[in-house]
Here is the input.
Amino acid sequence: KYLLAIADVSGKGIPASLIMANMQAALHLLSNSKLPLSEIIRNTNNLIYQNTSADKFVTGFFCIIDNDESSVEFLNAGHNPPYLIKNNNIETLNDGGLILGFMPNPPSYQSRKIILEQGQVIVCFTDGVNEARDKLGNEYGDERIIKVSTDHQQQLSKDIGIALLDDVQRFVNGNVQYDDITLLIIKHK
Here is the structure.
């Protein structure tokens, strides 16, 4: 089993990077505890809440991949919903709960388990991807993420990621971006 995460912290610079480092440490520690994913995230939320100011929070998508079952148990904590691509059918993965660090003991987080079938792809991204802007201020958008991902769905996960990054770079055409661009592509062979 593997725990994968993609997350984004409010704010920039050293304070945001320290929050992310704390979250990574919490996930690393809690993932070895054999707790259910929902409890790992609840405990991570409480640690972030206790160690940050009220104006800081984290969004994240967390999943446990079980190779033996070909399953993915996931939980979305206020993050841009990833896309599950199944033969050109698109499903957004929203199940989960509130952003992390916003409040102590939020309503319970709910995970969902899916069986990932051969060729299916999960495309996870931070808002630096869909909100990347060209020189006229137009956003890259979710529709382009979906189109490029479905067009390259038959390729390896790394090649899907490369195709997305290349397309974002063509779209922004040298315009400086205000946010980082992070992708996590999961694919069943």
In short: The two ends are 16 Å apart (CA to CA).
